[in-house]
Amino acid sequence: MLRLLFLLVSWLCINQASSARPIPVPNQIPTDIPVSDIDFELYTVGLGPALYMRYGHTLLGFHVKSTGARLIYNWGMFDFDDPLFPVHFYLGKRTYWVGQSSLEGVVRLYRDYEDRNVWRDIINLTDMQKAKLISLVNEKLTKETMFFGYEHFERNCATIPRDLIDQSLGQALSKTLKTEDAAHNFRWYVRTHLGIVSSLGWILDIAMNSKLDRPQSKWEESFYPIKLREYAASLPAYNDDGTPRVGESLLRFDRQLVVASSDWFLPDPNFYIGATIFLFAASLLILFFPHSWLIGISSVMVGGVFGIIGLSMPISWLFSTHFDMHHNINMLLFFPMDLAFIFLPLWKQRSYLSKYVICHWILLAVHLVIILFGISNQNAFRVFPIGLGYVIWMSVAGGWISYKSRRMQLKFIWDPKRI
After folding, report:
1. What is the pLDDT of residues 380-399, one digit of tens each?
2. For residues 300 and 393, is the Cβ–Cβ distance under 8 A?
3. 237, 232, 220: which is closest to 183 by C-alpha?
4. 335 and 363, same structural domain?
5. Is residue 201 domain-resident?
């Protein structure tokens, strides 16, 4: 075991060393070019089929009109080769950085490899605003400032360019968008965009708290690149004193660089239906066909999944900096101790089992009261049916085990051979 542990640690160290390659510092925007010869561009990338493509992408472009030279900046770079990246992301140690791309590289990536739409818009700025934006962008392109802690709703590839543009406009963008309500909240985005993997969709919906359910402003919703483009295009261009320029919009459509085969958008899937049906079906099978192997298989599947969910929620609260995975009323439904249901057929203390199931029923009722009376702002209506199915499965499987145990015990006590 010590040798295996040593080999594992060595392998991780080697992988970490190989992935710790030097990260180039992006080229800064030249400051000796007349600002009248410069355009800033907003590149918006649509959705894709993979999980990391589900929210789209934003790139900020710098274009010299007289020469055609371009610099495109990407605040979405992370280390694909880091073997511990999922763990770091879960705990909140999400180190991203800004990278530099060419126009040809951007088009080739999204056209030939990822099949995603790409739109290019020109940002309508005055010369003074362009000069301010050049200074702000260059401040982000140093060895000390190119890295940042990624937050999927608050600090991502779209919000950083948005904030830089807003600062160059004297906060004209944020002053408007913060006063207008968004059409959707964060939970809607989780359900519709990450629901492409149904299991991940409902697990995240269970694990994420009321922070996703509060009303959002358009400013907050512009974490989503497609909405950032939509809202910026709906706003006017601004003068240096912050007054709107009549008849001019902040974004001027240039062209669609890549036309994808699909927009990869999915309607809001009710991804709980399959899991709920499975739990009720498993309960009925155990009730009418009480075989030990059936209980064993369902115990491993159900106990494993919901035990891990129950364990992950308090761990997230204690150790992760994802604040939308902290306090969560769904902890009333799923406990860390539920992992023990993997070994349900081996349980010896049957009295503890019945008390444990009763405890689940009581907390399920508390969960329902919280939902019905609006005690919490968390949207857990979809979670309750799966919690109900889970407790019913627990009652049926646990009840059958207890019944079987009592029969075996009685048979043992009154065994004639013993007498």
Report:
1. 998 999 999 999 998 888 77
2. no
3. 220
4. yes
5. no
